[in-house]
Design a protein that fits this description.
The complex is a heterodimer of chains A (556) and B (248). With 556 residues, chain A is an all-alpha fold. Chain A has 22 helices and no strands. In chain B, α3 packs antiparallel against α4 (95-112). Chain B folds into two domains: 18-49 and 201-243, no CATH class; 69-198, no CATH class. Classes of the chains: A mainly alpha (556), B mainly alpha (248).
Chain lengths: 556, 248
């Protein structure tokens, strides 16, 4: 093996270094160094995926339930840290300042709810998928099918933003058109998911987490060091960058520090970057609260997040894996705002022009004159983040189709082999659908992903919350609640798509503001819960077997 | 949580066993801390906030009165120009607003200049060069820009090293120098207010570890709190399970 690798290293190293010094412009042609890093990482992922590939259905769905607490925490973090976290978070703060922090709070605070209300109980319930739980708890095949369809819709919605991120990074690395970049990215992620399966993905996710977090942190340490801030802990050191943006940084204080285009590291006072719901951002207090709330309850209702609790051996492990998972996630979330703050100063000069917000993390590193190979690693980290999440989502979506729809509803006698085949066919179909939607480039990555959260918050979250904690929750209540939550979701998403297509519907401005696509769960989720409770109280009681199971197994 | 083994009813809010009661109380305590920490703080921030103008806005407001009176002093025109450049130096300006601001700035530069035609031709020449330059590091482009910076800085009474001086050549347009209509004039006041007045309070002005306090609280502290709450829940649950011999 060494004999094969050594010549490759000697041949490729000078190529890498030359290529790196050549790719110094923000946009432009094919960047060889970053491309080699990206391809190497993807090959590494596929190889590890092959080594740990799924051998049967149990492996494919739940990774053999043999993952440790810390390992599972890393898998949770890797599964969670998507293009929305890696690229989208900084983009939201770069574009709308303090408003973007609603996403940081929403995407982390939800884990507290998930842990104290659900994690252990979900593991004790002992099902494979969210639809499995819904079908069993609400003793209804139809609800299982509806649950599966919702899980698929959520996965598709979530994947759209990820594919957008993959497309942007492929576009940056290859210097190609966005459309082509999305198509190539989609093909690569599909191949990866199909080969590795769930067991491979779980093992990979720990490696992916390390790659994602290292690639995200290295440029940040360099930026804080280079621009003379407290670099030992950039997550705190960037506080002074925020203050410099607010108060302005005169050229005289820049001490010859310049960005890669030669502009001074200076900025006029820009308090709008950090002041709450600043009028110039067009964002309001209500929107901040609605986004944070919707993302938090959405977190506790996302099928691919819930599904991760099935892969730990015990309920205790499920609980502790949340603590570890959240800590690992926070390392990235503490760091992301720093990119936005640095990006604000480094791109302050009008000559920099308008940058694609979703790629601001990479542009910031470029403008900070960081070595192109490290910028390439950063871009590869962004792709890895999207990959790790997309693979989890495609598995969740395909499981929902093959396991919950096909086996449980359509063909109960299907062999495990056939089940696996259908799961893979569903993966292919979902990838095609997601690619087609991603090409439309409807909104920022973070916003597109937030749609999935609101959808989960309006539909799955109430079913799990009430299903676990109230034996009075029954089939009729679940159906009524789903209809209420579903209707709100349909209205919000219809208005969003109509708006993007230039069609004005009745009361468009009103609905678009109060039920915007990325936060309609603030209304839909409580409504679904209330309707669920009212209808459940008026209809036939939950069967004794279910109630007995809840007490003896879930809350024992 | 179970009322009895006979009817098998559970409800989070009506626990009937010690285990269930303890769990409910712990969950409620944690949820209360969670809610107050997240939403309580933001509501406090909202209650305490006051619209506070930037120094540039105060400067603009006083000088604009003079300009609107029809007999502006050169200082008024310069102060207004400085304030407008303070807005143009910000990122994320709506294109329509930028157009009005560029128009106002160009018009002020024209009014302030003693050699109006010279200024117009110098700006025009730079614009032409900028349009034909594809790389911003082009030497001719940089030289022309370097020439124009002190000229415009002098007009607006700015230090040539000021950030605003460096962006002035990119914002002053020859075609916008001689006209500034009433509609734009009216819009300008609102635009300046939009970009230069911010919601501030003691929570935003107090510094902590280099951050404005509210920013530190939301971006850093809340995340620490979330991990802490999760850790606390797990530790207390483990302790309780050990004490009562409960196994998962």
């Amino acid at each position: 093996m060494k004999k094969i690798l050594l010549p490759f290293v000697f041949i490729s190293l000078p190529t890498l270094l030359n290529a790196a010094t050549a790719s110094t412009t923000l946009e432009g042609g094919f960047k060889v160094g970053p491309a080699i890093i990206l391809i190497t990482i993807l090959i590494l992922f596929v190889l590890v995926g092959i080594v740990f590939r799924a051998k049967d259905t149990t492996d494919f769905y739940a990774a053999g339930r043999g993952i440790s607490k810390v390992g599972s925490g890393m898998a949770i973090a890797s599964n969670w840290m998507s293009a929305a976290s890696f690229l989208g978070m900084a983009a939201l703060m770069y574009g709308s300042g303090y408003h973007g922090l609603a996403y940081v709070v929403g995407w982390t605070g939800g884990y507290v709810l998930l842990l104290i209300l659900m994690a252990g109980q979900i593991r004790k319930y002992g099902k494979y998928t969210a639809a499995d739980f819904i079908g069993d708890r609400y003793y209804s095949k139809s609800l299982r099918a509806v649950g599966a369809i919702i899980a698929i819709l959520i996965s598709i919605s979530y994947c759209v933003g990820q594919f957008g991120g993959i497309g942007l990074m492929f576009k940056w690395v290859m210097g190609i058109d966005y459309t082509l970049a999305v198509i190539i990215g989609g093909a690569v992620v599909l191949s990866y998911t199909l080969i590795s399966g769930m067991l491979g993905a779980t093992k990979n996710m720990q490696i992916q987490y390390v790659i994602i977090i290292v690639s995200f942190l290295i440029p940040l340490f360099i930026l804080t060091f280079k621009f003379d801030y407290f670099w030992l802990l950039p997550q705190i050191g960037y506080g002074s960058v925020v203050s410099d943006v607010i108060n302005g940084l005169p050229v005289q204080e820049a001490q010859n520090l310049v960005n890669s285009l030669g502009h001074d590291f200076a900025i006029v006072p820009s308090p709008e970057f950090a002041m709450p719901w600043d009028p110039s951002t067009g964002k309001t207090f209500f929107q901040w609260i609605a986004i944070a709330f919707s993302l938090m309850i959405g977190t506790a209702g996302l099928p691919h997040v819930i599904q991760r609790f099935y892969v730990v051996p015990k309920a205790r492990d499920a609980r502790w894996s949340v603590v570890w998972g959240l800590f690992f996630i926070c390392i990235l979330y503490w760091s992301a705002p720093a990119y936005a703050a640095f990006g604000k100063i480094l791109s302050a000069h009008p000559e920099v022009g308008t940058l694609a917000k979703d790629a601001i993390v990479v542009y910031t590193a470029q403008l900070g004159n960081i070595h192109p190979l490290i910028v390439g690693l950063l871009a590869a980290g962004g792709v890895s983040a999207a990959f790790s999440t997309v693979s989890g989502l495609l598995v969740a979506g395909s499981s929902a189709f093959a396991h919950d729809l096909y086996v449980r509803v359509i063909n109960p006698d299907a062999s495990p082999k056939k089940q696996l085949l259908y799961a893979r066919l569903a993966t292919i179909l979902m990838t095609i659908i997601v690619t087609l939607i991603a090409l439309k480039n409807f909104a920022l990555i973070g916003q597109l992903v937030a749609v999935a959260f609101s959808l989960a918050g309006c539909t799955i979250f109430p079913l799990f919350l009430l299903g676990i904690w109230w034996s009075g929750s029954n089939k009729a209540g679940a159906i009524a609640g789903l209809i209420a939550g579903g209707l709100v979701s349909i209205v919000a998403i219809t208005y969003f798509i109509a708006g993007k297509s230039g069609v004005s519907l009745p009361a468009h401005e009103f609905i678009s503001y109060w039920l915007e696509a990325w936060y309609f769960a603030w209304f839909g989720a409580p409504l679904a819960i209330i309707v669920h409770i009212i209808v459940a109280r008026m209809t036939k009681e939950t069967p004794i077997e279910i109630r007995k199971f809840l007490i003896e197994q879930v809350h024992s | 949580m179970e009322s009895s083994q006979n009817d098998y009813h559970i409800s989070f809010f009506k626990p009937t066993t010690d285990n269930a009661r303890r769990n409910r109380n712990m969950v409620l305590q944690l949820v209360l801390i969670w809610v107050v920490a997240i939403f309580g703080f933001q509501i406090t921030l909202k209650i305490l906030e006051k619209p506070v103008p930037e120094q540039a806005y105060t400067l603009f407001e006083s000088s604009w009165k003079g300009i609107e009176s029809g007999f502006p002093a050169p200082g008024d025109l310069q102060n207004a120009g400085q304030a407008i450049l303070s807005v143009l130096g910000k990122l994320s300006i709506i294109p329509e607003h930028k157009e009005v601001l560029d128009n106002a700035l160009s018009s002020l530069a024209y009014q302030l200049s003693m050699q109006k035609e010279d200024l117009k031709s110098a700006v025009s020449a730079f614009e032409e060069l900028a349009a034909s330059t594809t790389v911003i590091t082009d030497e001719a482009y940089l030289a022309k820009k370097k020439e124009l910076i002190p000229v415009l800085a002098g007009l607006f009474d700015l230090n040539p090293m000021d950030v605003r001086s460096k962006i002035a050549p990119l914002e002053v347009k020859a075609s916008l120098m001689e006209s500034f209509d009433d509609a734009s004039r009216e819009a300008l006041v609102d635009i300046m207010g939009l970009y230069l007045i911010h919601n501030r309070s003691v929570l935003t002005d107090f510094q902590f570890l280099g951050f404005p306090f509210h920013y530190f609280y939301t971006a850093v502290f809340l995340l620490i709190l979330f991990v802490g709450l999760c850790w606390l829940y797990c530790v207390r649950t483990d302790m309780f399970h050990k004490k009562y011999g409960i196994e998962d």
